[in-house]
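Before relying on records like the one below, remember that each one covers exactly one chain. Contacts with other chains, cofactors or solvent are not represented anywhere in the record.
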Amino acid sequence: MTDEKAIRELIDTTKGADEREILRIIDKSLESRPLELAESAALLNCDDGALIARIESAARAVKEKIYGRRMVLFAPMYISNYCVNDCAYCGFKYSNKSIPRRNLTLGEIAEETLEILKSGHKRILIVSGEDNKKCDVDFLVKAIETVYGVEYRGNKIRRVNVNIAPCEAGGLKKLKAAGIGTYQLFQETFHRETYSSLHPSGPKKDYDKRLAIFEKCFEAGVDDVGIGVLYGLYDYKFETLSMLSFASYLDGKYGVGPHTISVPRIEPAEGCDNSSIARYPVPDDEFKKLIAVLRLSVPYTGIILSTREKPEFRDELVKVGVSQLSAGSRTEPGGYGAPGKATGQFVVSDERSLQEVISQLVDSGFIPSFCTSCYRSERTGAAFMEMSKSSHIHDFCDTNALLTFHEYLLDFAPAELADRGERLIARMKNEVLDRKQSDIFIKLYTELTSGKRDVFV
């Protein structure tokens, strides 16, 4: 799946690619064609400022060609910080005896959901440490059912995704039946020696078993998966190319690449000396470039950016290919309803509320989106990939983004933001929708204004 020697050789042999070659690769990417691994390596190695600007500009163009101007928003919900693994970089690690631990009850999960709903979110990512005695699959299923059952003034969470430890086929089928969208799991690092040194004990110590979860997902019918690495643990070029190689493997074997790729950078965590662990820090300019290269390499994949990054830098990164943002995030169990009783997984750098993030997106000309229609219209897995690879998913994204944003403005926005948001909707309707889409949008927009909710195409 990933060949460390071959990836190293690619990094070495593609250094110094001339301007003509870089421009050829950029032109290819603008056709929304996935790049070969060597082409991605050449872009990662590019150090010419003018060419890097062209790479980043192309990334924005490709993202908007496929997904439109929308930016999907979600909130993570940590339900347990108990963990039997001893990952060196994580505040939840087993040996960290100094932190308060908490495993939410179903009642507390309902309270957290209510607080998230009150902010306007419609999509939750459930996150949990790995401890089957505290939080097994059956409890996760009950947690998901609890989240879906909470209502606030007619609003409900419409999609629950999960970022949880690997489980067996039976557990995956239970999660699928409970209504999960994407099953997300990060390899953290694809470099085996580094992986071994950072994961000394616990089930996560097994590199191959962790990576094998994605094949189990497809075989169990969970056809939307999310991958990622923790940048800073090893050379970012190696990690990016390894992740792309694995994405290509999944696409080749199952006809379905990863639905999302997440790009967290290592942040301080209580009880961890991450200053010594992060031996390969990724400077901001290199991080921005690698996100753009990911967008050009796998144009069909959603790229997720967390609140690990500072607000002003997040505002830059949405312009080079990011398509999903967490907002108003809390990384400790109970952090929305009863903060301070447990410790978070890492330090949050962007502490803006959902409303503040939306306000900035509006100013930047992006459509804040709460859309979950693909999950509920059987546009997942191979169906989603076919539509995104052909850019036809764009036929739905802008319309649904505008509709869900209008719904948010009606139910949650203060007057000033509602006014600016509606002006953006009016402008975007004319800029991004064709006549047929516009007619459908106007009909559904009117239904929302009249009191109907949860409409989509």
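DSSP finds 20 helices and nine strands in the chain.
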